């Protein structure tokens, strides 16, 4: 039995994290400059190697924390990437994960302590190896998730305005949305709680804050309600 294992090739397993964030201007991707060869000095996703005693999820959590300081964020396994020549040094299979975070809560520590940088998803630099392909796969998964589940709210602060929510969904779907149709579609789901407080930073009139009601959403799902979050395009 042992010979059967020993006679097979040993292959490295890497974990790469595609980290999406949101500020009021749009959807962002967190990148770092690679500090070792090959491709030293080029922009890269956050990544590292699987340890013998770890599960894939445990390794993804560890790597994300080591490289960004982030813990307890939305993290989901995406796909495996295993082209033979994807890493020029060693045969390596990479398992990609994507994370969703609220930039306002983590921006300073990420940029100051870990040397990371946010890029708009509409204007990304060339990335090492097959990381561009990973990002495209993650964007497609996020679009699908956002149309069927409230994952977009993972990117928002606890209190948010309707304009902020629309900017987020426009970033996810990479298209402009009709304001009235968007508001009507979102509010018809009856899972947002309108606050008495307004945000007046961006206009004199101000915009009311909302909160996502997770308990109400879960109750609707348990009741068999079908909630489709995908908004109508212009």
From TrEMBL:
Coiled coil segments of this chain: none
Taxonomic source organism: Fodinibius salsisoli
Keyword Hydrolase: yes
Keyword annotations of the record: Hydrolase
Record InterPro entries: NUDIX_hydrolase-like_dom_sf, NUDIX_hydrolase_dom, WH-like_DNA-bd_sf, WH_DNA-bd_sf, WHD_NrtR
Domain of life: Bacteria
CDD domains named in the record: NUDIX_NadM_like
A GO MF label: hydrolase activity
Name of this chain's protein: NUDIX hydrolase
UniProt domain Nudix hydrolase: residue ranges: 12-142
